[in-house]
Specification:
Layout: H1 3-17, H2 23-30, E1 37-42, E2 45-49, E3 55-58, H3 65-70, E4 92-95, H4 108-111, E5 118-122, H5 126-131, E6 139-142, E7 146-150, E8 153-159, E9 170-176, E10 179-183, H6 194-198, E11 205-209, H7 219-229, E12 234-237, H8 249-259, E13 273-275
Parallel strand pairs: 3-4, 4-5, 5-6, 10-11, 11-12
Antiparallel strand pairs: 1-2, 1-13, 2-3, 7-8, 8-9, 9-10
Length: 276
């Protein structure tokens, strides 16, 4: 198929699907095959689309459940909802821990309702699943040092340090299409673990928090970690969703430019696609 015909096909699909779903879902579905794509959903949420079109999502927060549960403006959702649970049929969902902006109790049951999506969730999500009376047929509870292969994705779960409030939280390394994407999960800086992480191979894309609260790395920590692990590309996350969470992406930008000028990084807008 020629390039022009391919573009025409994508435009036709977008126009057709646009009647039924939002622009972000159309962007995901029409991202060209044969390439690997990463999409930012906001907070710590990302979707990976493999060359063959399979979809893996990490830590999607699509509702307002955090404010509803916490009950104050510090957890009011400040970023728009760009995806509904029925817009995409995901092949894999990963929840790195039970905090509701990572394991969205208002959305997870709907995302799993198709009967095909597989959920890999940290052990501390088990009680939530049972409270929601979800079937556990497609759910696997995971710990650090476990590897699971699901379609195009080889998923290594690794340690993270999110403090005593979530001691069973995990980070995740996704190997897809010959690339390694490392989403650290919510964690403080653990420089003593860098060599263990490097054993998994070169990190092509690092995604890490910068909010510096609730046991997470701040802007300087993220930059230092990216340099220590020799990440080829670093994407900051966990900022902008809640007033109480903090995180200054401008500060991270300046640190990387001034202290690590040879390090590549990308500040992704919510809804942005990055071809990797």
């Amino acid at each position: 198929m020629s390039g022009k015909n391919t573009r025409d096909t994508f435009e036709a699909i977008s126009l057709y699907l646009g009647d039924y779903m939002n622009d972000f879902a159309v962007k995901v579905l029409t991202a060209p095959s044969g390439k690997t794509h990463l999409f930012s959903v906001g907070q710590a949420g990302f979707i990976i689309k493999s060359k063959s079109g399979q979809l893996l999502a990490i830590d999607l927060y699509l509702s307002d459940c955090v404010e509803r549960i916490e009950g104050h403006d510090g957890f009011k959702r400040l970023l728009p909802k760009i995806l509904s649970p029925y817009d995409l049929e995901l092949d894999v969902i990963i929840a790195t821990h039970f905090h509701r902006d990572h394991f969205d109790i208002d959305i997870i049951p709907s995302l799993m309702s198709n009967g095909n999506t597989k959920l890999f969730a940290a052990e501390d999500c088990r009680d939530s699943v049972r409270q929601m009376e979800m079937t556990e047929n497609n759910i696997t509870y995971v710990k650090p040092n476990e590897t699971h292969i699901c379609g195009d994705f080889e998923i290594d779960f690794v340690s993270c340090d999110h403090g005593t409030g979530a001691p069973e939280a995990v980070g995740v390394m996704v190997k897809v299409d010959g690339k390694l994407l490392f989403e650290t999960g919510d964690t403080c800086l653990r420089s003593d673990w860098v060599n263990d992480f490097k054993k998994h191979g070169r990190t092509d894309v690092l995604i890490a928090p910068i909010n510096g609260a609730f046991g997470n790395m701040n802007e300087q920590d993220c930059a230092d970690f990216a340099n220590a692990i020799d990440a080829q590309l670093t994407i900051p996350c966990h900022y902008g969703m809640f007033a109480s969470h903090g995180g200054n992406v401008g500060k991270f930008y300046n640190i990387m430019k001034e202290q690590y000028p040879v390090r590549r990084f990308c500040v992704m807008a919510q809804g942005e696609k990055l071809t990797i």
